[in-house]
Write a sequence for this structure.
C-alpha cells in the first residue's frame, strides 16, 4: 500500500473548570505531494506576466489551533445549557496556498430559555486572508496595464443565528450574515445575506 500523502499531528487538552468543559487543540499537517507555486514560474518570475511553467514545490504544510470553553452552566437541570466561546485559526503554506490564514471567534449559547433547552443562539466573526504574494502580483499587474486589477487582501464575515430545535430530528437555523470586502477586495460592495438552514 502507498503511504498517505497527508501526515497530521495534534495535541489536545480537555480540561474541566468547575464543571465547565473545555477543548484546547493545536495541530499541523504535512502533505508530501507536489503542488504548483501560486505566483512564480520556474525562473522565479510571475507566471501571469512572463508565462512559462509553474514552479513546483514538493510538500505543503500548515498549522491550526482550536479553542472552545464553556463559561456558564445552570446550577441545576440540563447540563448542556450555557454560554461557550471559541477561537479557531489556521495557517497554510504561502508558497502554494491562495488563502494563507483564517481566524474565527465567537460565542454560542445553548438553551437560552428554560423551555427551549436544545435551541442555540450564536454570533461569530471571521477573517480570511489572501496570500499577500497574490496581492503583490495584482499591484504589479495594475501598474503595468491600462486597466486596474482588483487587489485582494482579506475578507471579513460575521454571522448571527438562532437554531430552533423543532423536534428530535429537525433543526431550523435562520441566520443573518454580513460580509465586508467580498473576495478580499476593498472596493467591492459589502454583502448582507439572510439565510435559513435546515438540518
Amino acid at each position: 500500500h502507498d503511504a498517505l500523502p497527508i501526515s497530521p499531528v495534534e495535541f489536545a487538552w480537555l480540561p474541566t473548570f468547575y464543571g465547565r468543559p473545555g477543548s484546547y487543540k493545536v495541530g499541523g499537517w504535512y502533505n508530501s505531494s507536489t503542488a504548483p507555486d501560486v505566483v512564480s514560474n520556474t525562473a522565479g518570475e510571475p507566471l501571469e506576466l512572463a508565462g512559462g511553467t509553474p514552479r513546483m514545490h514538493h510538500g505543503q504544510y500548515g498549522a491550526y489551533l482550536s479553542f472552545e470553553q464553556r463559561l456558564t452552566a445552570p446550577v441545576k437541570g440540563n447540563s448542556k445549557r450555557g454560554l461557550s466561546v471559541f477561537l479557531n485559526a489556521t495557517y497554510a503554506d504561502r508558497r502554494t496556498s491562495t488563502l494563507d490564514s483564517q481566524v474565527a471567534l465567537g460565542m454560542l449559547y445553548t438553551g437560552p430559555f428554560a423551555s427551549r433547552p436544545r435551541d442555540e443562539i450564536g454570533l461569530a466573526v471571521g477573517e480570511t486572508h489572501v496570500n499577500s504574494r497574490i496581492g503583490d502580483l495584482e499591484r504589479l499587474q495594475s501598474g503595468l496595464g491600462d486597466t486596474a486589477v482588483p487587489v485582494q487582501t482579506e475578507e471579513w464575515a460575521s454571522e448571527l443565528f438562532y437554531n430552533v430545535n423543532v423536534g428530535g430530528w429537525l433543526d431550523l437555523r435562520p441566520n443573518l450574515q454580513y460580509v465586508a470586502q467580498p473576495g478580499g477586495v476593498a472596493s467591492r460592495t459589502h454583502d448582507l445575506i439572510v439565510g435559513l438552514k435546515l438540518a
Q: What stands out?
A: The two ends are 38 Å apart (CA to CA).
